[in-house]
Amino acid sequence: MPGSAPDASVGGGHGRLGVVTGAEGGWVVETVDGAMVRLRSGKIGLINVDVKAPVSGGELHVDADSVHLTLRLALDELRTGNFLMQGAARSIVSRNDAHVLSYSGEGPVAHTPWHVVGHAKAGSVDVELGLDVIPCGPADDPMAEIELKGSASMGTVHLPLPGMGTVDDFAFDVDGRFALRAQH
Q: Is 2 within the bounds of a domain?
């Protein structure tokens, strides 16, 4: 049945790996209760880039052969823990007309974590991004919540921060955890 919970043999998810059986269906990403995706870079000069962007929508579809994930992030509402970085991040969003980031990725169902590969697009920015999708809801409904983990590289990026300028190989990690609601 679409949207039904996977077989409880997964043991509640919580990052455990295995085969998620009976997970066919569709789910909508819940965008309330602080559904955020975090983007973090390694050390760039004296700073790390650490940005959180709210999830404004998305869906997860699983069939017998594949997993398809779509996400939308409201980059115009992103947050950082540093006022200089906040200004720089908003400048990059405005300069690239990147107010909403849309991601669409697909991968095989074989074992969890499911690995999807796709493109994250926002304005003039288009980055290939691979994500691990990990069902981590309670034992009786592992698909009630998922965790995302991945990383990407954007190549050369200009950061509008004093003393930063151009970063030749800007790489970042992605992580997020949010609730799903079965589609009917």
A: no
Kind plus residue range of the DSSP H or E element containing 27: strand 25-29
In a domain, 1, yes or no: no
Strand partners of residue 148: 133, 176
**Number of folded domains in the chain?**
1
**CA–CA gap between residue 33 and residue 54 (Å, rounded):** 10
Q: What is the pLDDT of residues 37-60, one digit of tens each?
A: 776 665 555 566 677 888 889 999
Query: By residue range, what is the domain housing residue 71?
Result: 8-182
126, containing H or E segment: strand 125-135
Which long-range CB contacts under 8 A does 50-53 form with residues at least 24 apart? 50/80, 50/81, 50/85, 51/78, 51/79, 51/80, 51/85, 51/89, 52/78, 52/79, 52/80, 53/77, 53/78, 53/79, 53/101
